[in-house]
Amino acid sequence: MGGFKTPSKQAQNLNRKSLGEIVSIFRELPIPDPAEWVGPKRGEVVGPIWVRASEGPANVSTGVRGWIGKEFYQDLRGHNLVRRGGEVQRVAPLTIQTVTSFIDGKEGPAIVYPDAAFPVNRVRDEFRALDDGCLLCMINYDLPIMRNFLFPFLLHKDPTVA
Question: I want to staple 137 with a disulfide (CB 3.0 to 4.6 A). Which of 42, 65, 69, 127 is the partner?
Answer without folding.
Answer: 127
